[in-house]
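Record 1 of the preview.
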Amino acid sequence: MDVVFATSNKHKAMELSHLIGFKVKMAKVELDELQALSVRTVAAAKVKEAYKKVNKPVVVDDTGIHIASLNGFPGAFAKWFVEGLGHEGICRLMDRYKSRDAYAETCIAFCDGKIVKVFSGRVRGTIALHPRGNANLRWDSIFIPKGYKKTFGEMTTDEKSKISMRGIAVHKLKRFLELRHH
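->
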């Protein structure tokens, strides 16, 4: 399968290749990011722009974290939220609220020039009291998936892959790609 993953994040590219089961070609392209709370909306807009730049079947992903006490914020703005407040700052901010409930969502969008498909994965969980573990993927060190005591940042790649929102979305993408090629 010849699919290009438009990203500048090598950690995301490695994770996608691991989850999908074959090496995905990475294309570092600068994409304008639509400003919207909805991860699905952002991913759909990005994949159309990415297709225009690479002119091949392409996938993009967008991930957000939606915190219940903040009415779903930061959503797709998670990157800027983490850059602005830092991991510890987000944990301290949540100390002001009764609920630390959140859900993480990844939307992987595919475009081949004719169709756009968006595949979504969600994982419910909570914001940790303090950052713990690896923070390569933005906020992994502060999100504890429901039913676990570890943050995503404390899990091995295999542990996280079995339950992650990206894993759920990639599984849907993989099924779609397999059906297209048969």
